């Protein structure tokens, strides 16, 4: 059975029709010992089927270890949305972006395709100045209405600066990781395993913390 | 796994908003981004007055609501979808727009000023305050320190993280009982702590909650303290009638005891009522000429989306009148 019913499908097609330049959905999966991989695989397949500008590359986490390493993938299911030249590699999703997270997923597709909403000049120059590798993990649940906002903000930073990697992490799929970071409210944002905050905060709050690193 | 996809799903209209400018003297400056603010914005722009808007986020409480079934025109709509529709209706206008920063102070005068967290002072002939409400805190030891570490306010967001755990829900109204129902489906045990001798939630919700066998309700009890170092470990409750204290071992506590108005920015500027709400008359006028207010932040009875939107419209029309007659 398809994941998307006709109504969702037509809404998704309409939203994805704004994709400007072609994008690639890089999907890391595994046939065994990954309970959510299969559904996530169906999800990316159905998404890729909705728009000609989307290419789906499926990698086996075990068999394609070199590629997993190139993308820095340490857990699955993982989705990385890139442009065709892989200039932008920092927008990642761990766990299925269903529920409310479908919105951050669509936003990521559009932004990587060149449709990012412009930011003020001063903000752009702050982001471009970041010179150290930054890893932002945004822990979410699929029933949290304001989590996609936090994911989209982290992803927006990753669009502007290749040193920034921003992950959506579905907390109930990666329970041990969520427990390690003491996630009991979402969205919870963890930056380089040093700084953390709870709640959908504006982009300047992310930047204030990143600049301390 | 049963999956849903909560999409707003609609065509986006071209975005025409412009950055808010501290050198411009606006006719109307709106503070807030919920239904009251966004409706006021549409009315002001259609009236052709120079309008600006400062808000921390777009959607306000509606962005936190899963489904809305009492906003006319939609039998059933996701909170975020309704927000998206409001937002698109505003974005078709060249309104001065600043999102992501808090307005910290309103300074009254012939020309009114709004001090903002971004370091700027914005100016306008009139102001509409629509800053709404936020979750009420218990104000007990441990609450602030453990917020996000087991102390939670958004049950639909955080319930999935409390699977197989013991949790407390504080409150007895609709939001508390909805939270208790969501949690009872996953958690090992749910203890509802209610100050009053009965629940005040709608009967349908109370009936649904009574179907669960893992739920205990403590009436006439209050929370005294929340304990834990890096996460919630226990909560002390006080039995008011029997004057006894008891410490329950739990990993989570959901505080669902209503909301408080966001009026810090106008304290000592406009008159507030005993609940801290801005007192307005039937034209949304506050105690200060040229300062208007609308929605949940005001003394208007009943806090609903459709009411906030209607009040936002009224405040906008009053503000436009004020600007035109005080040229
Ligand atoms: C869980 C929940 C479910 C609900 N369900 C329903 C329902 O089904 N139907 C219904 O009709 N109503 C419902 N309500 C009530 C409804 O959401 C509110 O009545 C309505 O949102 C009020 O709108 P508002 O514009 O006055 O304020 P709010 O929605 O509270 O918006 C306030 C805005 O002001 C901004 N803000 C606050 N302070 C500042 C500041 N200092 N500077 C800048 N910006 C600031 C905030 O970021 C926010 O954008 C629900 C509320 C909740 C919490």
Tally the structural domains of chain B: 2
Distance between the termini of chain A: 47 Å
Question: SS-based structural class of chain A?
Answer: alpha/beta
Total domains of chain A:
2
**What shape does the CA trace of chain A take?**
globular
| Uncertain runs of chain B | none
CATH architecture of the largest domain in chain A: 3-Layer(aba) Sandwich
- State the name of the first-level CATH class of the largest domain in chain B: Alpha Beta
Series of secondary-structure elements of chain B, N-terminal to C-terminal = EEHEEEHEEEEEEHEHEHEEEEEEEH
Radius of gyration of chain B (CA) equals 22 Å
Uncertain runs of chain A are none
Mean pLDDT reading of chain B: 94
Distance between the termini of chain B: 62 Å
Largest interface, Cβ cutoff 8 Å: A-B, 45 and 47 residues
Name of the CATH superfamily of the largest domain in chain B:
FAD/NAD(P)-binding domain
Keywords:
heterodimer; A: alpha/beta; Glutaredoxin; eight-stranded mixed sheet; 8 helices; 8 strands; B: 327 residues; alpha/beta; FAD/NAD(P)-binding domain; 2 domains; 20 strands; elongated
Q: Would you kindly provide a written description of the structure presented here, covering whatever features stand out?
A:
The complex is a heterodimer of chains A (213) and B (327). Chain A is α/β, with parallel strands linked by helices and 213 residues long. Chain A folds into two domains: 109 residues, Glutaredoxin (3-Layer(aba) Sandwich); 90 residues, Glutaredoxin (3-Layer(aba) Sandwich). Chain A contains eight helices and eight strands; from the N terminus they run αβαβαββααβαβαββα. The mean pLDDT of chain A is 95. Chain B is an alpha/beta fold and 327 residues long. Chain B has two domains: 184 residues, FAD/NAD(P)-binding domain, CATH 3.50.50.60; 105 residues, FAD/NAD(P)-binding domain, CATH 3.50.50.60. Chain B contains six helices and 20 strands. In chain B, strands 1, 2, 3, 6, 7, 8, 9 and 20 form an eight-stranded mixed beta sheet that branches. A five-stranded parallel beta sheet of chain B has the order 11-18-12-13-14, covered by helices on one side. The relative contact order of chain B is 0.17. The mean pLDDT of chain B is 94. At the A-B interface, helix 1, helix 4 and helix 6 of A face strand 11 and helix 3 of B. The complex binds flavin-adenine dinucleotide. Flavin-adenine dinucleotide (FAD) binds next to helix 1, strand 3 and helix 6 of chain B.
